[in-house]
Design brief:
Elements (H helix, E strand, L loop, with lengths): L1 E5 L5 H9 L21 E5 L3 E4 L13 E9 L6 E5 L4 E4 L5 E11 L5 E11 L5 E8 L4 E8 L5 E2 L14 E6 L9 E5 L2 E5 L27 E4 L2 E6 L2 E6 L8 E2 L25 E5 L4 E5 L14 E3 H10 L6 E2 L11 E7 L12 E7 L2 E9 L15 E8 L11 E4 L5 E6 L2 E6 L6 E7 L4 E7 L14 E7 L2 E7 L14 E6 L2 E7 L4
Parallel strand pairs: 2-8, 22-26
Antiparallel strand pairs: 1-8, 3-6, 4-5, 4-7, 7-8, 9-10, 9-35, 10-11, 12-13, 13-14, 15-16, 16-17, 17-18, 19-20, 20-21, 23-24, 24-25, 25-26, 27-28, 28-29, 29-30, 31-32, 32-33, 33-34
């Protein structure tokens, strides 16, 4: 601890004048200098916790009637930002400082003269929200985007953690997500109907330049429902445009791909099992013409053949058969990709039954009362240059008639396992499991949440290897009135049968829209 004594400042002129004409007209008194002890020189605290300090001022009395007190924190990152934490002798402060290093200043000020004494301490602020569940909520009738956090660091739940970060109010939230291809200092995307923005890695801080509009290569200001990381790129859908950002070297800018004059479903399908693909492909569903489309920008390269980048899926398969290197299509689950059906759901998984480094992309389509599932794998479109990668370009991996599944027409949420060939869907507060490996498929009710509505259900895909088995846990967000509850059902040991699994339960949240696990960034 460092202690500095300070006296009230006097100008040089007034000091000389007082010396020349000093007639003894001053009320001198003995200063009582505090001996400040009781606080360690180096302090550490977590955000959203309480910092309580009780300084000892020694044997002399320093009554509140004669003295004031002040606690300030000086940010060492810029040496200019000073924050007042309290103005009482003892400090009780709910930590809202951004994570970082600070100089903590404690002052004892004599009211009559302004003379003060100051003690200095080193303060390190760390995140209590550096790992845990990010829960995106819609608050009130205007559906204000609100982020709650269930912290693995402290075991506590923190509500509305963005309320003090300076971000303007956004409404109609869609999704909270992490992206490997976002700026490393602001890797989280908050997507809403009012627009999209990134959030910083330290305390979810916000800056004007985090708005998605600054990542656009044109003047568009899209409000996508999801941003998907594909091999060395990011993609998103908004309105009648599908956007692509090349991220092979750095964080690229989004631009609309050519040839799209139709509305596309908001989800991009891609291979999330590997990044080791030279000519990757991404798929999406054309809502206007009701067909699967595939986009592979590297097909334009003269080294590959100088082909068009955008194709209807069946046309791509024809093209693969004409390639000199014999682009390979595998799987006989269905003969052709369908056309004319209504889009219901699309989801990327890491389920890879043949260890081909290509997880299955599941799509649910509807035709009247008929519900059908299609499972697609996307591999290397140019096998000749594949270095230990997938041995095929496109795989027709799964097909199932879902029409007989109970209440499938009322399903509000779907989730597909990366562990087994399993689909889950929610109706009201009930969850059903569908074994896609059986013909016909077998459906079992997993559990029911009385008086609650399931509004979010997913298998969170983790990026760090130590969390691999957690990707098989079923994550369920439900609401009752305006209160949300998060439940996490263990999936690896239970082998995806959640009927007898007791979940982790986190109540007292807002009206849940989306849930994503924030991993400890390295």
């Amino acid at each position: 601890m460092k202690i500095r004594n300070w006296i009230i400042a006097l100008t040089a002129g007034s000091l000389l004048a007082s010396c020349a004409g000093d007639l003894g007209n001053y009320d001198y008194h003995t200063l009582k200098e505090p001996v400040i002890t009781g606080i360690e020189a180096d302090l550490s605290v977590l955000t959203h916790t309480r910092l309580s300090l009780r300084p000892d001022l020694g044997l002399e009395a320093f009554p509140d009637s004669d003295y004031t007190f002040e606690w300030r924190a000086l940010s060492l990152s810029d040496n200019t930002t000073m924050t007042v934490l309290g103005q009482t002798r003892d400090l009780e402060y709910d930590v809202e400082l951004f994570p970082g290093s600070y100089l903590l200043l404690f002052r004892v000020i004599e009211r009559a003269t302004g003379i003060f004494w100051q003690a200095e301490y080193n303060l390190q602020v760390s995140e209590s929200t550096s790992e845990g569940w990010m829960v995106l909520c819609a608050e009130g009738p205007e559906k204000r985007a609100r982020l709650d956090m269930v912290s693995k660091v402290t075991g506590e739940t923190y509500l509305d953690v963005l309320s003090e970060n300076g971000m303007p109010e956004l409404r109609n939230p869609y999704r909270i997500q992490w992206s490997r291809f976002a700026d490393s200092e602001s890797p989280y995307y908050l997507l809403t109907g009012d627009g999209a923005t990134r959030l910083g890695r330290s305390g979810f801080e916000w800056k004007e330049e985090y708005r998605l509009q600054y990542e656009m290569g044109n003047s568009d200001i899209p409000a996508p429902e999801a941003i998907t990381d594909v091999t060395a790129a990011k993609m998103m859908v908004y309105g009648s445009k599908v956007y692509y950002a090349e991220c092979l070297i750095g964080v690229g800018l989004f631009g609309p791909i050519s040839g799209v004059s139709f509305r596309a479903a908001p989800v991009i399908g891609c291979n999330i099992s590997t990044q080791n693909i030279v000519v990757p492909a991404a798929m999406f569903y054309d809502l206007d013409n009701r067909r699967f489309m595939v986009y592979a920008p590297n097909l334009r390269s003269n080294d590959v053949g100088g082909y068009e980048a955008l194709h209807e899926m069946n046309d791509l398969i024809t093209l693969l058969g004409e390639m000199d290197n014999g682009g390979k299509v595998t799987g006989t689950a269905f003969e052709r990709f369908p056309q004319g059906k209504e889009f219901v759901w699309m989801e990327n998984t890491k389920y890879d039954p043949n260890n081909t480094s290509a997880g299955i992309i599941y799509t649910v389509l509807r035709d009247g009362e008929e519900y059908t599932l299609y499972g697609t794998q996307l591999g290397e479109l140019w096998n000749a240059v594949s270095l230990g990668g997938p041995a095929f370009a496109v795989g027709r991996a799964a097909w199932a008639d879902l029409s007989a599944c109970p209440q499938i027409a009322q399903a509000s949420q779907f989730a597909f396992s990366s562990l087994r060939s399993m689909m889950y869907y929610a109706v009201g507060g009930s969850v059903y499991a569908v074994d896609l490996s059986q013909t016909p498929v077998q459906t079992t009710q997993q559990f029911s949440l009385p008086d609650e509505e399931i509004v979010c259900m997913k298998f969170n895909i983790y990026s760090q290897s130590e969390n691999l088995n957690r990707s098989y846990d079923l994550v369920v967000g439900s609401v009752k009135g305006d209160e949300g509850t998060l439940r996490v059902y263990e999936g690896f040991e239970s082998d995806g049968d959640f009927r007898n699994v007791t979940p982790e339960v986190y109540p007292g949240l807002g009206r849940i829209v989306d849930v994503t696990y924030r991993e400890m960034l390295k």
